[in-house]
Amino acid sequence: SQKIEQNSEALNIQEGKTATLTCNYTNYSPAYLQWYRQDPGRGPVFLLLIRENEKEKRKERLKVTFDTTLKQSLFHITASQPADSATYLCALLNQAGTALIFGKGTTLSVSS
Amino acid sequence: DAGITQSPRHKVTETGTPVTLRCHQTENHRYMYWYRQDPGHGLRLIHYSYGVKDTDKGEVSDGYSVSRSKTEDFLLTLESATSSQTSVYFCAISEGGTANYGYTFGSGTRLTVV
Asked: Inter-chain contact B102–A101, Cβ cutoff 8 Å?
């Protein structure tokens, strides 16, 4: 069955460094992949999506790559700040094409 | 979150009682979703709707029902609450039904079944 795995439950980095989060998927070939941010006690917030024919997408300090051969997406936050501390979720459409399925998330902590 | 509200924000209920959670949107989006979020499981789809009176089951639909009589409201009902339904419930809306549209989530309802 379709699976999404975010390899690290937690990632701790120092302010100013680049954070890299990984999302792997199996048994599926999605046309799009999305990334969300979730703060404690809040709902996820959509950050960006990348299409299968896009190798890379950028938005301010965020960069996402999508490698359909490796079945992997990497999410980078450059010049990280303590305010970037949150849980980041990747998502793709389920095989039925009806709704998003989500990875369990990686909790990023940026220390000053 | 702008355009989508969930009520109540918190609820404690007893085992065996019916509970209804409400999701209200002002965006006029066709697609609405209910997810639950639990430690170790992440977000899991309960039910979704692709229009008024058009709903279908997600991966964890047992014990839940939904109704959508108006575009703006999507109700989730636990017919007879059980402790395993203690969770945080999120509603989401989407302009389109495919993954080239991001979802907008509500702030969630924390439900405790005692």
From this structure: no
- Tell me which of A73, A88, A100 to substitute to probe the interface with B (most B C-beta atoms closer than 10 Å): A100
* pLDDT the model gives residue B2: 65
Chain B residues close to A36, C-beta within 8 Å: 103
- Subunit contact A98:B106, Cβ cutoff 8 A: no
Are A73 and A33 spatial neighbours (Cβ–Cβ below 8 Å)?
A: yes
Radius of gyration of chain A from its Cα atoms, rounded to whole angstroms:
13
Record: contact B98-A93, CB cut-off 8 A? yes
* Res A71: pLDDT: 93
Residue written as token pair 């069955």: A1
**Are A80 and A18 in contact, with CB atoms under 8 Å apart?**
yes
**pLDDT band per the 50, 70, 90 thresholds, residue B21:** very high
Contact residues, chain A, for B32 at CB < 8 Å: none
- Which position has the higher pLDDT, B69 or B40? B69
Cα-Cα end-to-end distance for chain A: 41
Q: Which residues contact A3 (CB under 8 A, 6 or more apart)?
A: A25, A26, A27
Q: Looking at mean pLDDT, say which of A26-30, B83-87, B96-100 comes out highest.
A: B83-87
Chain A CB contacts of B97 below 8 Å: 97-98
pLDDT exceeds 80 at position A7: no
